[in-house]
Write a structure and sequence with these properties.
The chain has helices at about 5-40, 80-95, 135-155, 215-225, and strands at about 100, 105, 110, 115-120, 125-135, 160-170, 190-195, 200-205, 230-235, 245-250, 260. The chain is of the alpha+beta class. It comes from Roseitalea porphyridii.
Length: about 260
């Protein structure tokens, strides 16, 4: 073998040695990294470091809900009871047009927690001016109009009622000549002065003449029917204060007594 062949063999061997050294060093480094970084020491397995945790645990914080009066079905001022909501649903089924208005509190004795402003008592039957009532009084008035006064008008005049004149609804006052608070002070009463029929004829509640038999018959039927819906019914002949209008209210009395005069 010549000098050139020997030099080539030596160079080749040197390159192989360098490659083996590099592979060996890389293997040792990888092993060191595996054992040190992953914690395989003394046969005990440790969890991966947080920086490369494949499934981190999440913490969800629940923020408290703000307490807003009137929102939802919980307690608090301005929140309607189930009975109030059911009453409004009944008004809608009867075609009554109304809007909820802000609570009224004029004094310790006067006010309505959940008042409604009623502009019709049935489809096509206006209440003018609109009445401010509690919902139960509004519903009683609608039932009376639709089941008693309306049919009485159709029977005698062959036409329906177009408009009912409201003389008083909510009003913070006492009963005249008495220290007792009126049912008007709770939006629990409605005063009616006249009826306008769809043919334009107007029937006043004030006492009719002797020969106004049809009007008298209608007013008598409307007044009598109100006793089925209200606990107090007053009108012409009851006293001087009610000589020109009907007074209907839902006053609660012992044993469910109704005063129909």
């Amino acid at each position: 073998m010549g000098t050139t062949g020997i030099s080539s063999s030596v160079a080749t061997g040197a390159r192989i040695a360098v490659r083996l050294a590099a592979v060996t060093a890389g293997g040792l480094a990888l092993a060191a990294c595996s054992f040190l970084d992953w914690g395989f020491m003394d046969g005990a397995a440790k969890a991966p470091p947080a920086s490369i945790d494949p499934s981190p645990t999440r913490t969800i914080f629940s923020l408290p809900r703000p307490s807003i009066p009137g929102l939802g079905l919980g307690g608090g001022p301005g929140v309607m009871s189930a009975a109030e909501r059911q009453c409004r649903a009944a008004l809608k089924r009867r075609g009554v047009q109304f809007v909820d208005i802000a609570p009224i509190r004029d004094s310790a004795a006067c006010g309505i927690d959940h008042p409604v402003k009623v502009s019709t008592l049935a489809r096509g039957v206006a209440l003018k001016p609109a009445a401010t009532l509690n919902c139960q009084a509004a519903l009683a008035a609608a039932e009376w109009l639709q089941e008693d006064a309306g049919p009485a008008a159709r029977k005698r005049y062959l036409t329906g009622i177009a408009e009912v004149r409201n003389m008083s609804s909510y009003s913070c006052r006492r009963i005249r000549g008495s220290g007792q608070w009126s049912e008007h002070s709770k939006g629990n009463a409605l005063d009616i002065g006249s009826f306008k029929l769809k043919n334009g004829h107007v029937i006043d509640v004030s006492r009719q003449g002797l020969f106004a038999m049809r009007a008298r018959g209608f007013l008598h039927a409307a007044r009598a029917g109100a006793c089925d819906e209200f606990s107090t019914v007053l009108g012409p002949g009851s006293d001087a204060d009610h000589a020109d209008h009907f007074h209907f209210d839902l006053r609660q009395r012992r044993s469910g007594y109704r005063h129909c005069d």
